[in-house]
Fold:
Amino acid sequence: MEQNKTMEQKPIIEIKGLKKRYRLGVINNKTLKSDWQSFWAKKMGKPDPNIRIGEERLQGQTLMALNGVDLNIMPGEAVGVIGLNGAGKSTMLKLISRVTAPTEGEIILRGKITSMLEVGTGFNPELTGRENIYMNGTILGMTRAEVDAKMDEIIEFSEVREFIDTPVKRYSSGMYVKLAFSVAAHLDSDIMIMDEVLAVGDVAFQKKCLSRMSAASTKEGRTILYVSHNMSTVRQICTRCIVMKEGKIIFDGDVEEAIRIYSEESFKFELKQELDVPEKFPANQCGCITSFEILDRDNLIFDSKEKLKVRFGVKIVKPVKNVACLISVRYAGVNLVGSYMTEYMDFSETTDNGYFDVELDLSNLAQGKYFCELRWGEPNAGRFVLHEERLSLFGFEISENKRRNDFSWDIGRWGYNLLTVEKLEYHKGN
Structure:
């Protein structure tokens, strides 16, 4: 009995001194002859004859994608993994999933893994959706009868029933994600690893997936590792969070504290920025925010008497009569200190680009750093239907507020509405 209790307390994922080193640049040439020429040129101290003029080969240079990671995850934990691009998040998940081998260190797994590291991972494009379900089940050690028992549930959740006997090479990226997530969520595994591939799916399916992941952790006792740049989903799913930077874990613990640290790391002192715009929009999305620009400023440090004027670029892809933006401000990326819903704007006769100007009153904000978020949507049957959200869109800093000199935001205090929008104007055209 005591031995079983000890076994239960062992981590389901145990990582010791994990390192992963990659070589940079081109490793070899196209032919044995050119490789031989390059080798002798280097040995004789002469220029490489196979490098074009102006080109530089990064011979001998390496990158430590992971540089000494120690991590224990207990059964049933839902752990978020956050950090800037290039921090080592995806590399760590690939090593845990056995996609690639570590340069140094040890990974001990005490359970079966299903993972979604990128769209289409684990699928054979020549096989049908149904055949891929059987293949994934077999990899996990399940019998055909066990997969058959789960088949209808997987197909129903995936929303691709009419295409289930079509080769997956003909699936869209959204269909890939729907089926891959459904397989990962319903086949028998102890550990689910998700690397932000849900961003490809539509909003309704994302919500269904997040709900399923929460249930897998809380009700089924499955362990979840979840990488995302969407802090709201990390809050929704995870009970613990780690922050990575330059191949190392710099924080491991409370979710809100992790998000605060990540927000500080990613704080943007940018006066303007062009944002990524999707090539294709979901059928229910009327448009997106394409850019922001802070007006009449050469820095983002304000005192409480100043106004923050910002211009948001807009792309309208289908006519819509009533659309509005919800502007929110968070203190240090965590505490919501104010939100403001703009008036509804009429785009029923245009699919043009445009912009709208907003002026924010900062007089109620205490000293510190703040992040602006923006959500875009329309009313439908008494609800605000979200089309797009831009989190941590830009940051600004309040240098002082004499009226609130001794005041700071408490992480446990939510629900303040101290954001005032003094002016909002929409303009069509660039």
Q: What stands out?
A: The longest strand covers residues 383-398. Residues 272-428 form a domain with the Coagulation Factor XIII; Chain A, domain 1 fold (CATH 2.70.50.60). Residues 203-218 form the longest helix (16 residues). The two ends are 72 Å apart (CA to CA).
